[in-house]
Amino acid sequence: MAVNNELIEKIALRVTRTGTDKINFKILEMIDNGSGNINDMIKETGLTKVPINIRINQLEKVGLVNRWRGTGMVVLTELGKYFMKLIYGYQEIVRSNVMDILKKTYDV
Questions:
Q1: What angle, 0 to 180 degrees and rounded to 10, lies between the N-to-C axes of helices 22-32 and 49-61?
Q2: Is the pLDDT confidence value at 83 over 70?
Q3: How big is the CA angle at 26 (ends 70 and 68), to the nearest 5 degrees?
Q4: Which residues, including other chains, have CB under 8 Å from residue 80's CB and lie 6 or more apart?
Q5: What distance in Å separates the CA atoms of residue 12 and residue 80, rounded to the nearest whole number?
Q6: How many separate helices (H) and strands (E) can be counted in the chain?
Q7: Which phi and psi angles does 91 have, rounded to 5°?
Q8: What pTM value is reported for the model?
Q9: Across-strand partners of 68?
Q10: C-alpha distances in Å from residue 83, one per residue of 57, 70, 93
Q11: Packing angle of the helix pair 49-61, 38-45 (nearest 10 deg)
Q12: Which of 1, 6, 53, 99 is deepest in the core (most CB within 10 A)?
C-alpha cells in the first residue's frame, strides 16, 4: 500500500509537535529514565490525574507510548525510544553550536 507523502509529513509533524510540547516531553523523559508510573508523573509535573491522562492519551495516539490501563504504568514504544534518541542527539548539536545560534538570534 503506497502512502501519500503529504500524509507522512502531516503525521511526522504531529508526532514532533506532540512529543516536544514542554510537559509532554517531561513525561517522555520521566518514562525514558525508568519512571513510567502515572503517580510519579503527577508528583513531578504538579498536574492532577485528568490532565496527565489527557497528555498520555495524546502521546499514545501518536505512537510514542503504550500504557496498561488500570496499572498506572506507561512505557515508550520503539518509536518513542527512537524519538527520544533523536531529540537527545539534536540537543547535543545545539549544545555544540549554542554560541553561533545566540549570535545570530541576539546579534551578539
A1: 80
A2: yes
A3: 15
A4: 19, 28, 31, 32, 59, 63, 64, 65
A5: 13
A6: 5, 2
A7: -60, -40
A8: 0.85
A9: 73
A10: 17, 26, 15
A11: 110
A12: 53
Q: Which residue has the cell 527512537?
A: 82
Instruction: Give bridge partners of residue 65 from the DSSP assignment.
Output: 76
21 secondary structure, DSSP code:
S
Q: Count the Cβ atoms, other than its own, within 10 Å of residue 36.
A: 22
Q: Are 19 and 28 in contact (CB under 8 A)?
A: yes
Residues 64 and 81 sit within 8 Å (Cβ to Cβ): no
pLDDT digits (tens, 9 = 90+) for 35-69: 899 999 999 999 999 999 999 999 999 999 999 88
Report the run of H or E that residue 36 belongs to, with start and end. Answer: none
